[in-house]
Amino acid sequence: MNSFLKYLKWMLVLLVITTFITILFVYEAAREQVFYLAEKLDLVKPSWMSWMAPLSNVTGGYKIILFYTPYFRSMPWPQARGKEKRLTDPYGRKCKVSSCYVTYSRQDFSKSNAVVFHTSAMPSLSRMESLLWKKTKGQKWVWYGQENPENMPFSAKTYSNMFDWTITYRTDSNVLDRYGYYVPITSNKDEFTKKNFIAGKDRLILWLASNCVSFRLSVVKEISKYLHVDVYGKCQRYFDHQPKGSCTRGSGDCDKMARRYKFYLALENFNCRDYVTEKYWRNALAHEVVPVLVAGSYSKDVLIPGSYIDILDFPNAKSLASYLKYLDSNDTAYNRYFEWKKNYTSVTTTNWLCDLCELLHRNDSDQEKEPLDMGTFWGTGNCHADDAYIRNVWLKSDARGRDSLGLCCLSFLYSILLLGFHVIEA
Questions:
Q1: What's the CATH code of the domain at 61?
Q2: Nearest-CA neighbor of 180 among 192, 171, 190?
């Protein structure tokens, strides 16, 4: 009897676990169907499900944008929370072309003009292949991604010949959603001519990082051999020096502290084409700190001219450290890294949803094109152009110099010893 009860108990536990897993898998489809049924029966619509409602009474001349996947784990997407038919930009201003509906209901799939997929929640290949059979003529599948190809949980090549458009930070995307960009200014050019940007800065170098990939960790460790670097975040454990206090990303205290530094190590986790993130735009420029980064082969076209220090302009960390020391002691030279403010202003918000709506309307007259080869567009071949040089030359050139000096000294001592032996033998 006891063994039977024990068996029954484990069967019950297994049933609960199986039910829970099943609910997780069918959750999204289930809540959509529940709402659909509630709508059909004219029941009260739950407010937390209102954004899931399928569209009705779509008027002519409007385009429909379906967000098929979550934005990371967020639904609805933070940039498109309502079923607007008058789209607005991040400042609440009406888009130049605003006649688009936003929907999250997959029941609207067949009538949608654009279907947007976020790379963090990409459906399985088999699911995407089954959707291709339902894709309507003229419908645009849109690849949305802001992580670089090396940070992808899958190979982009898997989804080749499925997507028509892209929304990314890449300058050759159909729609741009960059971490930041700059535009020319024509007024107030004299505003910064008398400002001393080094004033009030009593700390030298700051690095905020929690993703401690070997490349940039090695670079920071090499720099820290010659200059003091304050490190905050999970990467702090790799350094003997522990700065006082904490710096929680986005907090007011952290922002105030960042402004006390002269230089910020804006090193990306991977060096990929056009991949310049908030490390440069927000952590450095917004706090009026000079960014030290890897521009190299990929990023010079998207960086503000004269606003940064490229480590690849120096043969090694020792040479870079000498230059940073020079800037630390020379206000005039340091302030030159802010002269760009006379000609440009940086922007960290984008209107990609407005741009997508405009592109849909403009595309009415465009000729159909072949789907994109995502393996080429978003493959890892768009990264690592300078990595070999950094690892094999930049990080080692100074070490080779020290090794050569050591070998030279050893050779000299060895020669003295040999000479001594010869004298003794004589």
A1: 3.40.50
A2: 171
How far does the chain reach from its first CA to its final CA, in angstroms?
101
- Residue 374 domain-assigned? no
What gap in Å lies between CA 7 and CA 1, rounded to an integer? 10
- pTM score, two decimals? 0.80
State how many domains the chain has.
3
Strand partners of residue 168: 176
For residues 199 and 327, membership in a common domain is answered with yes
Residue type at 227 in one-letter notation: L
- Same domain, residue pair 131 and 230: no
In a domain, 414, yes or no: no
Domain end point (choices 349, 375, 401) = 349
E runs forming strands in 211-285: 229-232, 261-265
**How much is the mean pLDDT over the chain?**
82
Kindly give the parts of the chain with pLDDT less than 50: 24-48, 399-426
Is residue 403 domain-resident? no
Residues 295/409, Cβ–Cβ less than 8 Å: no
E strand or H helix that includes residue 344 = strand 344-347
- Give the pLDDT of residue 368: 66
CB 165 within 8 A of CB 359: yes
Tokens encoding 59: 């008027």
State the helix-helix crossing angle for 395-425 and 214-223, rounded to 10 degrees. Answer: 60
Q: Are strands 181-184 and 344-347 parallel, antiparallel or unpaired?
A: antiparallel
Residue tagged 């990082």 (tokens): 209
* Spatial separation of the C-alpha atoms in residues 323 and 278, rounded to whole Å: 25
CB 108, CB 66: distance < 8 Å: yes
**Domain ranges, residue 148:** 56-177
Asked if the structure places residue 26 within a domain, the reply is: yes
Same domain, 186 and 330: yes
Furthest-apart CA pair in the chain: how many Å?
Answer: 114
Measure the CA–CA gap between 294 and 389, rounded to whole angstroms.
Answer: 12
* Residues 255 and 291 sit within 8 Å (Cβ to Cβ): no
- Measure the CA–CA gap between 391 and 213, rounded to whole angstroms: 13
